[in-house]
Amino acid sequence: MAPDTSGIESVLHEQRLFSPPRPRDAGAPRWLIDSWEQFRTMHERSISDPEGFWGDAAGELHWFKKWDRVVDWSPPDARWFSGGRTNLCFNAVDRHVMSGHGGQTAIIWEGEPILEDLDGSGPEIRRLTYTQLRDEVCRFANVLKSLGVKKGDVVTIYMGMVPELAVAVLACARIGAPHSVIFGGFSSQSIVDRVIDAGSKVVVTCDAAWRRGKLVPLKDNVNAACDILADQGHRVDAVVVLDRCGGQGTWAEGRDHDWHEAMAAASSDCPCEPLEAEDMAFMLYTSGSTGKPKGIVHTVGGYMVYTYLTAKYVFNLIPDSGQVYWCTADVGWITGHSYILYGVLPNRVPTLMYEGAPNAPGEDRFWSIVARHRVTQFYTAPTAIRAFMKWGHQHPARHDLSSLQVLGTVGEPINPEAWMWYRQHIGRSVCPIVDTWWQTETGGHMLTPLPGVTPTKPGSC
Asked: What is the pTM of this model?
């Protein structure tokens, strides 16, 4: 049977072209890159003088020790910022506290359940400032240390989309313990495969997670994985469990540790570990053609600079401008690593995390979130956009989406019909769409429009 190429054909024959809104247009945001001339100058310098270009970009971040050389390039291998020492967590959190911005919001979180209370009903919402986030991260970093985690030890994280997931990830980065985050929808066997491959001895999880009004049994899955691992001769020394859903799952005395109890006993003082630029930042597993998980390694320095710079320009992130950025991905994917946490937090724009599904309890949930939090950048997948189309444009029409400035897509090609629906019904025909192509292996955007510069064609990145 011949492959279906209708989507490709529709892109190839697409002729519509849309210019980005100019800063002078009513209601249009200020663009960090606002002309082809500015972009060409930057791009040409990145090609002709990569050490100068990337050195300047790295200089916008904090280094405990400056690099000896920006890049050592011996094809196919490159070493970035050799000799430099830095820390992803310091640049995402501490740098802002030390510069006097600790009281600003770092993370906005909304839970899936709609809670009944004396004032009516609404979602559970939490906001963490940079100072609060730093203190929580320090406490959990000390919890990990108390469990014997040292620099270079891989910590496995299998959690729902709760703020503590961000805390756990940043705590690992703080002490130089690479994290291996597993998407909460994966099975016990997926945990087994990744724990063995990474040689991980510590697992961080939740008792359960909310998804479409039902509980996903995370702790039970971890228990089953630990049993399989024990049968295969691999011992998990400690499991830290966050009680999110009322204490679901059975408890293993001596192995399991309650998140809240451990945090209450931990100090909020934990200096960041100065890490070599080429030290491992994290492992993230992707499946190839054989279906066997493959652990992709990203190192500290190059990944930090690249995600910071691409997030800044592709999403037009401007501190102190009232922006609220929302990527709907799970932190279990590379999109969540790069464009919920590590790329966005260093730019000092609040990043929003949502716990649940886009149709819980209703098919307008995403649009109620955009309106409630006045989201300015919205980044989601074409699969979700096609679902929104199927559910109907009456759902976004019920909500005030006028805060939106930039729309983004990620994860797969987007067909022109979905692109046009997204532009018209979510972007009100004024928001540029950044259609981003990249991979787990690259860690950040490789092909994309820039919102204030690039004329865009539906379906083409």
From this structure: 0.95
